[in-house]
Structure formats: C-alpha cells, structure tokens
TrEMBL record:
Cellular component terms per the entry's GO annotation: protein-DNA complex
Protein name, entry field: LysR family transcriptional regulator
UniProt organism field: Bifidobacterium aemilianum
Cross-referenced Pfam families: HTH_1, LysR_substrate
The keyword Transcription appears for this protein: yes
Length: 295
C-alpha cells in the first residue's frame, strides 16, 4: 500500500494520470491499476472520474491529507535513523542570548550531553542580531533568542517562555514609591544597550521603533560594563526578570516597564532552520522546552 499511497499523492498533485506516471517513472496504465487496487483494498471511492478529469471524493481528500503526513513522517524517520547510525551529525552547534541568563540553556546542554555523549557541542552566545546572523549563515544549528521579527516559515519557531520587561536603574534614579515605570517617563535618562559595535544600529532600531524608547543611547560591550554604567547613574537598561538577577540589588533595582499603562513583555523561542532539522536538533529543542516547562 505504501507505493500506492505515493502514486495516489502524485495523481492528486499532478492533476493527471499522465504527469503522475512521468513523476513516478512508470506507465500510465500502471498508475491506473495502482489507484484501482488501492480503492478495492480500502473499499471506498477516492476519485470521482468525469471524462478525462477527476475530483477527490470526501474520503479521497481525507486519504490524501493523511497519506502526505505519513509519507513525510516515514521520510523523516529514515533520515534520522541513517543519521544516528552513521553519527554524521557528530557536533551540534547551538547559541543562546547572553542577556537572558544561561540557567535553562545549560541544563538542556547537560541533559543532552548525558543522553548523547558521542555528540559534541559547540556553544556560542551573543546579542539577538549576532545569533540571527549565525543562524541564517548556517554557522549554528539552533539558537535560543527573543522574538523581534515576524515568525518566519523558513524556521522552526518553538515557543519557550514570555517575560515582563524591566528597567534596571541606579537606586539614586529610582522614583520614590513607584512599583512600575512607564517607558515615556524614562526619556530624559539614557538607555544602555549591550551590543557589539557591528550590531548597535540594529539594537537602537529595535529599542526605538519596537519598544518605543525615546531616550538617547549609550552602548556597553558586556553586561558587566552595562552594570557599571547603571550603578554610576549613567542610564537605565531594559531587560527581563532573569536578566535583572545578574545585577547587584544593593546598588540597583529593577522596575516593571509599561507602555501607556500596559505591561511590556518579550517572548523567547528556540529557532532552527527547516532545511537543517534533524533528530539531534529537535531533541535539543525539546530538552530546552522541558527546562522552561519546569520553571
């Protein structure tokens, strides 16, 4: 039945028995015989023939959709099995967002290494744009990063978590008695960006046009440098609850940020290229999701 399913899919997608025969590299009569045999085996009519054309019956439409999914699963299973046997993917390349914190990511690394000791791990970190370019240039297999663009069909986009945005400020700059702060009220205080020189323009664009920051920007190369600027009351840093834990609470404090009274949040995903999917990549992604599921 497997070959008959493939032939049936070809008939539906090519719209003629002749082109389906050419695709399958068999005769047109062989295509007709396979379809007839399939209908006899199932005991239902899949195609309603009208002269030289045909249309799918309701049962035929269901069988077509399910057959496509089954064939895809079988092809994926074949690829994964061969990959595991040959250990062709001997190194998995992954990256994480440096400003978020690495706890869950490192837990996924530990679980993966324990399950697959024969597979090496190359780990990169950086800001959003750095990770995005590594992924699009095929220099990493998977990245854990925040969402800044519309989700693309070119990638698998596995949702992991969502976190409120916080403004980290020097204790000297904190508004008295406030439990949250609106982004507009920070306009006179510089906004600190953690970004490499090559990606500062991208970070400024994101903060200005997506987050609505109206402050001028100053840049830091590392979180440590950004913390120095914060405690010196040189500006504020936008981060999430996890990122704010990396700052000294004696010298700085984080307040939830709102925009026109609404909480500001940021979503985080595991991203990997659809053309570079496979058993180890998807396993690591699921391990990462499990870590966030336990938070």
């Amino acid at each position: 039945m497997f070959q008959q399913m493939i032939t049936f899919i070809a008939v539906v997608e090519e719209h003629t028995f002749l082109r389906a025969a050419e695709q399958r590299n068999i005769s047109q009569s062989a295509v007709s015989q396979q379809i007839q045999a399939l209908e006899r085996k199932l005991g239902v009519q899949l195609l309603r023939r009208t002269g030289r054309s045909f249309e799918l019956t309701e049962a035929g439409e269901h069988f077509y959709q399910r057959s496509k999914a089954i064939i895809q699963e079988v092809n994926q299973l074949t690829t994964e099995t061969v990959q595991i046997a040959r250990q062709s993917h001997s190194t998995l390349r992954v990256g994480y967002l440096q400003t978020f914190g690495s706890t869950e990511f490192l837990q996924a690394v530990s679980a993966f290494s324990q399950a697959f000791p024969q597979i090496g791990l190359d780990i990169a970190h950086g800001d959003h744009e750095h990770l995005y370019r590594l992924l699009t240039d095929d220099q990493v297999d998977l990245v854990f990063s925040d969402q800044r663009r519309a989700l693309s069909g070119n990638f698998h986009n596995l949702y992991l978590t969502e976190s409120r945005l916080l403004a980290v400020l020097s204790t000297r700059a904190l508004p008295q008695g406030e439990r949250h702060i609106d982004i507009a009220s920070l306009s006179k205080l510089p906004c600190i960006l953690v970004a490499s020189k090559d990606h500062r323009e991208d970070e400024e664009d994101y903060h200005r046009n997506t987050l609505g920051v109206r402050s001028r920007f100053i840049c830091a190369n590392t979180l440590e440098e950004a913390e120095m600027l914060v405690v010196a009351n040189k500006g504020f840093l936008l981060t999430d609850a996890r990122g704010s834990q990396q700052f000294s609470r004696d010298l700085s404090q984080a307040l939830p940020v709102t925009h026109r009274g609404q909480p500001m949040t940021r979503k985080y995903y595991a991203f990997w290229n659809r053309d570079n999917s496979g058993y180890y990549v998807e396993t690591f992604a699921q391990l990462l999701k499990q870590q966030f599921g336990s938070v």
